[in-house]
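dumping the sequnces here before i forget
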Amino acid sequence: MSARVESGMAGGSLASKIVIYGLLLVFAVIFLTPLFVMLITSFKTLDEIRDGNMLSLPQHPTIAPWLSAWGTACIGLTCGGIKGYFGNSIEMVVPAVAISTLLGAINGYILTKWRFPGHKPVFALMLFACFIPFQAVLIPVARVLGMVGLGNSIAGLVLVHVIYGLGFTTLFFRNYYEAFPSELVRAAQIDGAGFFQIFSRILLPASGPIIIVTVIFQFTNIWNDFLFGSSFASGDGVPMTVALNNLVNTSTGVKEYNVDMAAAIIAAFPTLFVYVVAGRYFVRGLMAGAVKG
Amino acid sequence: MAQVSIRKVEKQYESYKAVHGIDLEIADEEFVVLVGPSGCGKSTTLRMVAGLEEITGGEIWIGGDLVNDVPPRDRDIAMVFQNYALYPHMTVFENMAFGLKLRKFPREEIKKRVDEAARILDITSLLERRPKALSGGQRQRVAMGRAIVRNPRVFLFDEPLSNLDAKLRVQMRTEIKKVHQTVRTTTVYVTHDQVEAMTLADRVVVMNQGRIEQVGPPQELYHNPATRFVAGFIGSPAMNFIPVRVLNEGGLQVQLPGGERLMVPPQRTNRYAQFAGKEMTLGIRPEHLTETHDSEKPGVGRMNANVEVVEPMGMETMVHFKIGKDELTARIDPAVHAAPNEVLPLAVDMNQMHLIDPASGRVV
Amino acid sequence: MSTTTATRAISHERASMRDKLQDWLPRLVLAPSFAVILLFVYGFILWTIYLSFTHSRMMPVYTLTGFDSYMRLFAQPSWWMALKNIAIFGVLYVAICIALGLTLAILLDQKIRGEGVLRPIYLYPMAVSFIVTGTAWKWFLNPGTGLEKTMQDWGWTSFHFDWLVNADMAIYTVVIAGVWQAAGFCMAMFLAGLRGIDGEIMKAAQIDGASTYATYRRIVIPALRPVFLSAFIVLTHMAIKSYDLVIALTGGGPGNATELPSTFMYSYTFTRNQMSVGASSAVIMLMTVAAIIVPYLYSELREKQR
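..and the predicted 3d for all of it:
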């Protein structure tokens, strides 16, 4: 790849280099601007927002909007900031990610190393489940959660996210284990290991990368989910994304843009943090979810 | 230690049959090699013995137990795989101890057995390493060590040397033979390399298209192949096959495609007389096509070769030539002059001839 | 040796029972996951389809009424608005993302110094919730506070950019924010595709006398066909599902100017108490997605068997 356009560049000279770098930088600026504007706005006072320029740095930086967003901003009728909702999201995302990843790993293990007649249609059905528009199941899920008493509860959201995440987690692990040498499984069988022992002692220790990919993918998806959160939760039980939207659309009093921006950054922080720390795995997850092969 | 009986064993996959009802009795302490081209069913057979493939017909007995429905771990066997199948996250010691640990052997016993196996295989200094830090030959030893510590009734080897380079392969071959001489466990060994089969086996089983072609000690297969397949498969370079017509005109003889005739030695005439007038295939190994001498042994005939390619190998020279459409190889003394596009007279040791019925492929 | 023989004898006693279990264990372990998916995905889809043939309003009723809800659905001007919008949004979103993603990928593939810094910058919006994206762009595109005001402050007093509140143009703001979010993802896909092309082919083309432009046009872009297909599938699928972005950016407004099938479905089902109409719109969304995804998955799964 490095050899690739070397010769092209050699012909292309300095001018083309300047054009290429110029374009790339322009796009970089465009991509960064919204984040930049959010950041500086969140540190401005409302007066400065009203009178000043969107792109100018805060003259009197203040963290008041952040404190307000976290602890005192009004969402609907309650004025406790977003901290409670941030907690809701964490309570939802941790078990949902853990359970769906574990089940996906076991399913992937079975679908590659313990194939049974009919494993292909089973996998195909699980795979297609990844791609349905959730609108097609929204009404029944709402009814069923209500019937079993999980409506408006974090547990209900966990359940829904586990179920509708299973297709993807299974897909990830299946593709990973497909390349895992079956010889090792056979050797372990002969060594006397059973179904669960082979999984826990042979495959799992070798699954580090795919576990990271899956956890990040699921974490990002579930944390950022809005549809399920807004459909199956309400009031104090909603996750972060729904609360943010409610905060932004709460129309009582003066519109506090700085608080909105601070809250938005707080809502985006966990996934952005994961992205910055483990971007490589994040991209791999996106690709695995996109290019199925 | 145990004998292994394979009785009318079949393997049917959804669309095709990989193994067609084979029978094989393997004696206690015997070293048997299954050999054949890829897809001949040898690995499938081995895996059925191991319990890794379901047996779709027939029976497999190990040491007097019918094991058809016994899972691999309860068959008391150990297996060495082509890619070694070492657990990457375990040290050499842990790899070798894994099977014993799962069987809840006491710690001291495990240590004793691993140390003993490591000593036999000369890998004591590697016990704390991980497979990644080992060379191909060392991994191979560990894989064998893992089999030895179990002290199983049967060792199974699935093409264990095919991933090693040529030199190491020869070394490890010797190693495997030594180990077998030390521990004397019944061994079933699968390979596609006939040299490996010849050098290792007490008995060789040649397989082709899901069937057994011939079973026998290496020398017997070499000198008395039962079929054209075995004749062509065993021995390197491979046996020459020449389409001939058997004639009975002043003694039994065979006529080559070019018209030359070779006398059948008297002790064979009875055997071959019935084929007079028929089209048969003459099989003759390259080492029995040699340079001519002033006085030949009885039964040696002569033919002329239009030399195409000469390959000096040092202690001998291979000469490739054509008769009709068939490529033949002769093995001559390097001192004898041979050059492309020249005619080279060759001595044919007809005492070593094989006559094959082209219709059945059987050696008559 | 004697201990092994003893354990062997015992193990044989229990062998058959345990072996049966061992044979079935994988299927037993997989069964709950599969059953749950059968029920919650396929069962619920059937349930939704059933509801679309009823007159359910706030609560489900189970008396079949034929295609009534579909008639009512297609009699709604806002459903037609949603269809028109998804067409505009879908086409522009997919086309621009692919064009921009491919451009960025090719530029980045020119042995760029600092690629490691630039690439994450293009991709980071993908890690952010659509709600956050919508909130940010809502602020950014707001005529009173955002871009318009900034430009006017800078002296370009005639600058007008009121798409967000202009019913004719609002859907294009959704396109802008959507592209901002997903273009980097497209870039990553194309970049992976480019890196997968054998460099020797490109060298050979250059030795054959192809210009850089011709090399890309004739060799590289044709070789990226599978990536185009994947990108198209994924983006179309994302476009049809997009819901959060519209909610956060425009709330479907002004009026119903940015209504999409997804927002339509939600509002008819949960706020307007026309559950059967909502269900029929969901069925139509599902059929659209299935028409794109099923052939694609089918070919992907088949290819892998070879």
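Residues 1-13 of chain C have pLDDT under 50 and may be disordered.
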